[in-house]
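Explain my protein.
***
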Amino acid sequence: MLQQDMFAISGPSPLVRIQRLGAHLRPSVFAGLEYVNPSGTQYWNQAVSIIRQAEAQGEISPGMTIVDWTYGASGIALAMAAVPRGYKVLLVIPDRISREKQQLCKAIGAEVVITPSCALPGEPRSCVNVAENLVANLHQAYFANMYEHPLSRSVHEEVTAPRLWEQTGGNFTHLFVPVTSGALVSGLGRWLKQKNPAIRIVGVEPEGSVYRDLFKGEQTTCTVPCELEEIGALWASSLWDPAVIDEIVQVSDYDALNCSRDLLQAESIFAGGSSGAAMYAALRAGAHLGSDASLVVMMGDSGSFYMSKVFNDQWMKEQGFYRKAPSSRGEITAEEILGLKSRKDLIFAHPENTLAEVFEMMKQNDVSQLPVVSYGTAIGSISENKILSILIENDEAMNSNVVGFMEQPFAVCQPHATISELSEKLQENTSGVLISLSDGRMQLLTKSDLIDALTHK
């Protein structure tokens, strides 16, 4: 369709099925590519709407300076919407933001002010305070305040959500959304919950962000720095609406960034770290859902903004995030194998349990081996064969504590470990591998679990 100008571009974002990364999951998984628009970000419609509304209300006119603080993507969209219409744009950006986004803002014609990322909210050097001070001291300056502007949420409520509903026919059960200001997740949730309250709205943020604690009604713990961009917050935005959100989950830098790389190599989806976080959260949840579930993942930023970071092997290695891309033989992960198991809870022995108690646990749960766990840490293991050899030498040992007879602890792997990596561990004279989950729990995988996963495939 012929468009008269860039600002008239409209229509739903592409919605594509995840074929390979979700091949071993029972639910279907779809990616909503919200960044496929002129700006390469999820903020294009908001930026255009904010500029148009401000013009219509007489708040701005060409020649004025539009100021905002930004993590980069919103600033790119704002500059693209404003500079061609005759406005000066001044963007305040924390120094940890990728150089690609900083350079693109300048290339569009915006002036960029860099602030230290270590400056906390309320401090004079923080990006928010610097932006507000610039607005107060510049002649004919307008504060766009995109992260807090009501239009940022209403655009998703009035445009994005209805389009998603039309694309899917409303036939999805879960929606995973990266959370920064909460405008996207809250706007989508408000409209979709009216259409179908059963749709589960899941917000995704990095470890150290504030929303999960706030959602649970808990005291916000001390925030920690992360490398993920365009996701998470140090304080709650006025736009986030927990009443239309069912859950807030957190994803580590490691898992999010590697999922972004996996998306490019396995699905030809070139998306940034916030998109990788949302997709990782969906795949993690999908491992525990049935075939009647259908998951949609909103992806908000282009991978082209992170060539110096996420898609740079050297940077990933320096940060300790680098993971070699899994081969086709090793695509099944521990997380997915756990999702196929009927038993979800780890059966384990405490050091003070007697051999008789341990053997009874084995019989009741139909297992031949158990990890020995103390205060959440695996310190050893015990098997039926070991108990038999003990009793042959000393038939009175059944009343002795298992801690005196336990064998080496099982190897511990992360949920993203591939089946080939798990197999290698199981070849190292161990009969099981413990998987350390993000919530602090552990689960056990054995050779038979791996065989079941391969035959299920």
The longest strand covers residues 88-94. Residues 150-168 form the longest helix (19 residues).
